[in-house]
Amino acid sequence: MPQLNPNPWFFIMLTSWVTYSMIIQPKLLSFTSTNPPSSKTPTTADTAPWTWPWT
Q1: Separation between Cα atoms, residue 13 and residue 15, nearest integer Å
Q2: Which PANTHER family does the record cross-reference, listed alphabetically (predicted)?
Q3: Which of 20, 33, 38, 41 is the most buried (most CB within 10 A)?
Q4: How much is the pLDDT for 37?
């Protein structure tokens, strides 16, 4: 079965991963995050029990 021959496909996969790792990934990682992590502690909302009018 010719689709099981890894000879041409392995080189294509290896080339694409090298391209991604060396060229595309550093360009993507250079962008600044639009929502950087904050060091503030999260505040919890003050929740009060609901008073149901029919009880």
Answers
A1: 5
A2: ATP SYNTHASE PROTEIN 8
A3: 20
A4: 74
pLDDT at residue 21 in the model: 87
Phi and psi based region of residue 19 (left: phi greater than 0; alpha: psi -120 to 50; beta: remaining): alpha
Buried residues in 32-52 as b, exposed as e (16+ CB within 10 A): eeeeeeeeeeeeeeeeeeeee
Query: What does the chain come to in residues?
Result: 55
CA distances (Å), origin 41, targets 23, 35, 44: 37, 16, 10
**CB atoms closer than 10 angstroms to residue 9:** 11
Give the pLDDT confidence score for residue 15 in this predicted structure: 93
Assigned token pair, 54: 């029919």
